[in-house]
Amino acid sequence: MTFRIGSFAQSQALLADTLRNQSKTFDTQRQVASGYKSDDYKGLGREATTLLSAKSTRARLEAHKQNNTRLDLKLNFYDTTMRELEDSARSLKQNVLTALSSTNGTLMVDQVKNILDRTIGLLNTQLDGKYIFAGTRTDTKPVNITDAAGLLALPEPPSGAFDNNKIKPSTRIDDNVVMEYGMLADEVGQDFLQAMQRILMFDSGTLPAGAAAYGPAGSFGNPLTPNQVAFLENELSRMQAAADGITAQTAANGIRQKQLEDTQIRQEREVTFIKGFVGEIEDVNLAEAVTRLNQDQVALNASFNVISKLNNFSLLNFL
Questions:
Q1: Is the pLDDT of residue 3 over 50?
Q2: pTM
């Protein structure tokens, strides 16, 4: 009986199988080392388009998050400054009330001047070298006077004290939301400065607009004259209105802070979700990959062993 041995075809088949095992082992080793299923989008097949879309969304959200972090700092800075302005407005009214209750106005004007100095400084507040109440003219002081003399030199109301423009800064906090967040010095401070201007005008001997019934004007002393008392009592409502206006601006800023906070919380959740979604597509399961690597290495070693043994066989072994 005759036997025919086709060793060439068998060797070629075994070699092809070994190369496949080797390729699988290399791929699994790369996955374990990198943590990714593939080095390129081609290796992800149909999921590549979904992955690109998810990464684009994540990039936009990350950009919004960074922008909103900077905006949060600005809004907090506005809040701090506005609360100090509220304190100044309350101090003005309280000092006038104290003068009225004691009928002594000798210290009141100096206190008004101190409050004015503080108010000018607050309205000229800077953040990162930019004036926050100047509109988009962030390189220009929004209040151009420096003291009581400068305020008295202006006609009433003191609109000439302000150099801010009327364009409030705004920024996009989400794909579909643009927030106007800026405050303007004249909107915040003009009524307040006018309330102080009128007291200083009266003290310097000039009757403010609409105060003819309280003349003659003159320095507030001890005791206050009946016409001075009447004038100051009439001005209390103006001071309260100025303080209420500042409070309203502070509240509006607080609403923006709350809106931004809610947006940041939602964006953080969306980023967390998308990171997980992206990871499901491109990240390899390391435990499974290590298991596959061990199996692939066993199969590859087995292929090498078989090839090694076949290389030692010859026809003589069967004769």
A1: no
A2: 0.78
